[in-house]
Amino acid sequence: MNQLSNATILYRAITKKRWINPDTKTIDAEAFILRFLERKGEYEKALSAALKPEQTYNRLSKCFGVIYFTVGDVRELGLDAIQDKVDHVSIINLPDPETHEKEAIDIAVKLARKAQLYCDWLENPYRKYPHSSS
Amino acid sequence: MIGQLEITKLSVNPNFEVTLERLYELKEIDADLDEDEEDEVLYPSDYAFSVSIELLTQLYKRLGESFPRGFSSLESRGGINLIWTEQELDKEVRIKVPVSPQFQGSLYYRKGDDSELIKNPCLDQVYQYLLWLKNTYN
Fold it and tell me: Does A35 reach chain B within 8 Å, measured CB to CB?
């Protein structure tokens, strides 16, 4: 894949409602902290993003919105963004949340400050399998 | 006289009520998600939940009307993050309640770009940093 320019806009799905601070509506650091994957028994190695908004959520069961930021925002923090599939970008070099907890939160706070809400579905989330009871 | 009796509702700081409600929401079952299909923990552990309730209650006993409104989020192992922010002062306090006693909790506090992390904080440290959150002088 081609190297992404700093101006490239990246989109990331909001998979947890509380990635948005309910009082300030700002993006919380948790949106940019590597998650523990239960089946693998280890932390993910990179954060997922995409070049188009719909690519971020079309495989998810549920999505509360989309946030966006640039590749330059990522690189300014010493991280990098690598397009590894046509519809997927990996944000790499993030600190391990267990062994480098403070650094992981610091970086996540800074990235959260740079990111902005592209769309907000907090009250009416996208569902892959809509059900009538909601 | 019965007609003059008034039932006095106990006054509870609404910030505490809202913070507690937001914690309870983490336990609500989400019909859209199936734990067998997701490669991540969807709900906090009973341990993290009960410790969080106890912590908020103890903090409220100390802070009373000064208890700040906060929110909680799921930590990816199944712990709970209790989060308070003060946007105008660019400050935040984050308490990580671990998924189980085998893991460490933490207190992260930040003003601007200056931050510190304390492992396994005691109640008094959390209390002091919630007071610090609203303090405009440091």
Answer: yes
